[in-house]
Amino acid sequence: MSNVDNDMPVMGMGLHWDDVTLGQRFQTLGRTITEADITLFVGITGMVEEMFTNLEYIKSESRIGARPVPGSLVFCISEGLLMQSTMQRTGMAFLECDLRILKPTVAGDTIHVECEVVEARATSKPGRGLLRTMNRVVNQRGEIVATYNPMRMVKGRDAHATG
């Protein structure tokens, strides 16, 4: 026997492509990137460049003055922030994006993502559409550290009716 109440809305559901409007804006919650995040990421990806792994090298050679966060980790954490708030049960595929890293992010920085819907349209198959946002990754000082514009395939509101 299931405890599911079909009349009770589920919170945290993602956006359907046909529920958004062009120009609609929103932002995610923030997340602080820790030393542990960097260590785990460079270990699992093999990105063992000294600028990420050797604190003595960073102290003596880095122009940043602190342990840098790989740009790809900034992107991945940004996507995680968006997953939590916009894609649960509606996201179908990440298709493409142009990514630009504009400023360094360092251990201890807190980022959030500001999004603007720039494209939303149906595909040739019912129940799905294409959704593009312009995403700005912003740190705790209000600086834009990265931008990217993902195109995603997303379920439509009628997805359950058409399979």
Task: Indicate the topology.
Elements: E1 25-27, E2 31-32, H1 35-45, H2 50-53, H3 55-61, H4 71-87, E3 91-96, E4 99-101, E5 110-122, E6 128-139, E7 144-148, E8 151-155, H5 159-162
Antiparallel strand pairs: 1-5, 2-5, 3-8, 4-7, 5-6, 6-7, 6-8
Report on this structure.
This protein has 163 residues and is an alpha+beta fold. The protein has a domain at 17-33 and 68-162: Thiol Ester Dehydrase, Chain A (Roll), CATH 3.10.129. It contains five helices and eight strands; from the N terminus they run E-E-H-H-H-H-E-E-E-E-E-E-H. Strands 1, 2, 3, 4, 5, 6, 7 and 8 form an eight-stranded antiparallel beta sheet that branches. The chain is elongated and about 60 Å long. The two termini are 24 Å apart. The model has no long low-confidence stretch (mean pLDDT 92).
User: What is the count of helical runs?
Assistant: 5
The tally of beta strands, per DSSP, is 8
**CATH architecture annotation of the domain at 17-33 and 68-162:** Roll
CATH class of the domain at 17-33 and 68-162: Alpha Beta
Helix and strand composition category: alpha+beta
* CATH homology superfamily name of the domain at 17-33 and 68-162: Hotdog Thioesterase
Tell me the major beta sheet.
8 strands, antiparallel
Give helix and strand order, one letter per element, not per position: EEHHHHEEEEEEH
What proportion of the residues form beta strands (DSSP E)? 25-35%
The CATH topology annotation of the domain at 17-33 and 68-162 reads as: Thiol Ester Dehydrase, Chain A
Radius of gyration (Å): 19 Å
- On the 0 to 100 scale, the average pLDDT is 92
How far do the termini sit from each other?
A: 24 Å
Low-confidence stretches: none
